[in-house]
Design goal:
heterodimer, A: alpha/beta, Elongation Factor Tu (Ef-tu), domain 3, Rossmann fold, Dihydroorotate dehydrogenase B (pyrk subunit), domain 3, 7-stranded antiparallel beta sheet, 35% strand, globular, B: alpha/beta, TIM Barrel, 8-stranded parallel beta barrel, 4-stranded antiparallel beta sheet, 8 helices
């Protein structure tokens, strides 16, 4: 659906990383973890296109808090990387945004009783919080492996811990948690059965996680990011190669419509 | 006051208003059904079809540029047979004319795709994209050579009884020459402009942004070029002209009407606002109400110079 959202808060969590909360229509409570929204940052022609963001959270203000009836809200985490996100970071309480949501396919939570392994690289952590909330509510054991270049890239760990998620942090430079790549830490904790992986982050990290999951025969879902114009499967700008893609038998999948969450075996990683 | 008459008849295609969706920006229609009333717009033009399914180009395929975007999708489509079997049944239920955009990798393919669409009651007309390279003639683009374009137009004309729109490329020295050539060869209407060839460079990586290196520029950045070309062509041909290029709102659309377009196509705007075509049609009507104009037709080519 397409609707207007009012910015409720827009806070810098760590240098260059923001957490924004905005009002949402009640229908958004049906949003699945892993689905995304597209924001029009400004009603002008530069930047022209919407920007896609995964849902960090969806919730409801109680009547006392909202000052009237209950009010649904959604939250995103974002990193300032260009003109669009810079403009977004300058918004204040009361500013209005045009939103398309919820879009795409979400995570498939898998069987109850399985251990759920979340792997987030940098801002890729964003959609994993909403997922963790849902998994914890189902009674699943959840562990989070969060990685980044330095401690500024590690976000909202206390939020995960508050849910009861066991967290493992690693940074390239060792300024927070273990020193090294998140995939190295992950590999030490993988067991051959009873696990399911959910990963979001830079493509090289996702590739490493996907290949590791395949090697250990652990089911794995990845949430991909791509340049996209429309978000509804029309422009075909955001496609990725399917596992069996070849020059002769092409197989492209839309990140916006067929994803952004894919089973790692659906995609081509070479 | 009565509602103004927004209806348009274009080469025999009756439309409730002059707002059409541009090929390649509206999928096969169904993608947008959640966001707008498909029966509020003038006509739908579907993603360009080829004889066989086409995979399209490697990624990245799109990049934003100031006031516009570059795309090199590579005409990815399901192919004409899958369109007829899977997409057309849905579209046929919508009470809005469906115009099918088509292209061929060879001259013969143009004729074959047109032939397969001929006689289908759900297809109100066809739009021929002549901006692709003629593989047989060493990659010369049909859309930039008036004689090659005429060959395509004549062949398609022989293979269809549907109204035929020919979509012109702006990447030529003299668009009027191309327009006249296509009109003389039997086009029932012309649509212009297709995207302008451009490129974007990632300075730090020293690489082109698009995997295809070059792409087609669309969006508000190209509107002045499009207006100029529509104005030039509309003066010189006797068949209807459809204006395309960076239309974001009703005022943009009406500028094309003044320049001589009988209808318009909304393209890139549908990407940033999936309801754009409906909003533009509604706001165009409101403009006529506000100005006390009783029919849209009276504005076509009414530019005062």
């Amino acid at each position: 659906m397409q609707f207007k959202s009012m910015v409720v808060s827009n806070v810098e969590l760590s240098p260059g990383y923001f957490r924004m909360r905005m009002t949402a229509p009640p229908e958004l409570q049906q949003t699945l973890p892993g689905q995304f929204l597209m924001l029009r940052v400004i009603d002008s022609i530069d930047p022209l296109l919407r920007r896609p963001f995964g849902f960090f959270d969806v919730g409801t203000f109680s009547a006392e808090y909202a000052g009237c009836g209950t009010q649904t809200y959604s939250e995103i985490l974002y990193k300032v990387v260009g003109k669009g996100t810079r403009m977004l970071s300058a918004l204040h309480h009361g500013d209005l945004l045009d939103v398309l949501a919820p879009l795409g396919k979400g995570f498939e939570p898998g069987a109850a009783g399985e251990e759920k392994i979340l792997v987030g690289g940098g801002i890729g952590l964003a959609p994993l919080y909403y997922l963790a909330k849902e998994l914890v509510a189902r009674g699943d054991k959840v562990r989070l492996f969060a990685g980044g270049r330095n401690r500024d890239d590690i976000l909202c760990i206390t939020e995960f811990e508050r849910l009861g998620v066991e967290t493992y942090v690693s940074t390239d430079d060792g300024t927070l948690g273990e020193s090294g790549l998140v995939t190295e830490v992950l590999e030490r904790h993988l067991a051959p059965s009873g696990m399911r992986i959910f990963a979001c982050g830079p493509t090289p990290m996702l590739r490493a996680v996907a290949l590791m999951a395949q090697a250990h025969q652990v089911p794995c879902q990845v949430s991909m990011e791509a340049y996209m114009a429309c978000g509804v499967g029309a422009c075909l700008g955001c496609v990725m190669k399917g596992a069996n893609h070849s020059e002769e038998t092409p197989d492209y999948r839309c990140v916006c419509k067929d994803g952004p969450v894919f089973d790692s075996t659906e995609l081509q990683w070479s | 006051m009565q509602r103004p008459d927004m209806s348009v008849e274009l080469a025999g295609i009756k439309m409730r208003n002059p707002v059409m969706t541009a090929s390649g920006t509206f999928g096969y229609g169904a993608e947008f059904a959640d966001y707008l009333d498909l029966e509020s717009i003038g006509a739908m033009i579907t993603k360009g079809l080829s004889l066989r399914p086409k995979a399209g180009n490697p990624t990245p395929r799109i990049v934003e540029t100031p006031g516009g975007m570059l795309n090199a999708i590579g005409l990815q489509n399901v192919g004409v047979d899958a369109f007829i079997a899977q997409k057309l049944p849905y579209l046929s239920k919508v009470a809005t004319p469906v115009i099918v955009n088509l292209y061929g990798n060879t001259l013969e393919e143009y004729g074959e795709v047109a032939a397969r669409l001929d006689g289908l009651p759900g297809v109100a007309g066809i739009e021929v994209n002549i901006s692709c390279p003629n593989v047989k003639q060493g990659g010369i683009v049909f859309g930039t050579d008036p004689l090659a374009a005429q060959e395509v137009v004549r062949l398609v004309k022989r293979n269809t009884s549907k109204p035929m729109i020919v979509k012109l490329s702006p990447n030529v020295t003299d668009v009027v020459l191309m327009a006249r050539a296509c009109a003389d060869a039997g086009a029932d209407a012309l649509s212009l402009i297709n995207t302008l060839t451009g490129m974007a460079i990632d300075l730090d990586r020293r690489r082109p942004v698009l995997a295809n290196i070059t792409g087609g520029l669309s969006g508000p950045a190209i509107k002045p070029v499009a207006l100029r070309m529509v104005w030039q062509v509309a003066k010189c041909v006797s068949i209807p002209v459809i204006g395309i290029g960076g239309i974001m709102n009703a005022r943009d659309a009406l500028e094309f009407i003044l320049a001589g377009a009988s209808a318009v196509q909304v393209g890139t705007a549908s990407f940033l606002d999936p309801s754009a075509a409906q909003t533009i049609a509604r706001d165009m009507e409101q403009y006529l109400v506000d100005k006390g104009i009783s029919s849209l037709a009276s504005m076509i080519g009414a530019l005062e110079v």
